[in-house]
Automatic annotation (TrEMBL):
Pfam families: Oxidored_molyb. Gene3D superfamilies: Oxidoreductase, molybdopterin-binding domain. This is Molybdopterin-binding protein. InterPro entries: OxRdtase_Mopterin-bd_dom (IPR000572), OxRdtase_Mopterin-bd_sf (IPR036374). Residues 34-178 form the Oxidoreductase molybdopterin-binding domain.
Amino acid sequence: MSIVTPGFQGRRGGKPDLPPGQYLAHDFPVLSAGPTPRIRTDRWEFVVTTETGEAKSWSWAEFTALPYEDVTVDIHCVTKWSKLQTGWRGVAVDTLLEDVDTAADYVMARSYDGYTTNVPLEDLLDGQAWVAYRYDGEELSPEHGGPARLLVPHLYLWKSAKWIHELRMMLQDEPGFWEAAGYHNYGDPWREQRYQGD
């Protein structure tokens, strides 16, 4: 199944349709808050934890055996570059939360390196987000978040946590790493929500 991001509106007059303040990148810049961790797939685990502490986990073999989707989406970095029509393979967050009983409205994504970012649960559902493990037909490289990263293409890319380890359900919102440092709590590129107050 192929999906095109809802934010993509085609091209006008031969020029790409980019969010305000963005420029078109032809490469895939590598930006991280710290050093790149190397996570072996035989030790990798993905966990969904509810607000009551109930946890559901998958090994790499279990995770990659789940139904996957091939998606084509535009991605936008807060540092002002955008990359259009990027191809990914991943498991929809809808699939991962299928049997999870939660009353949460928010999620904290946590990475293997300790990085965190908060996202409203509704922004991860209804075909809007994936845990991706392939990019452009290849295994996802560590520099781009491999073996697996969260992919939330309608928000700035810092919300698509690299080296994803856990989605923790929360009844109340709390800031993640960049949000606590002054980045916008939500991060909509079409509204230029880069920093608090935008």
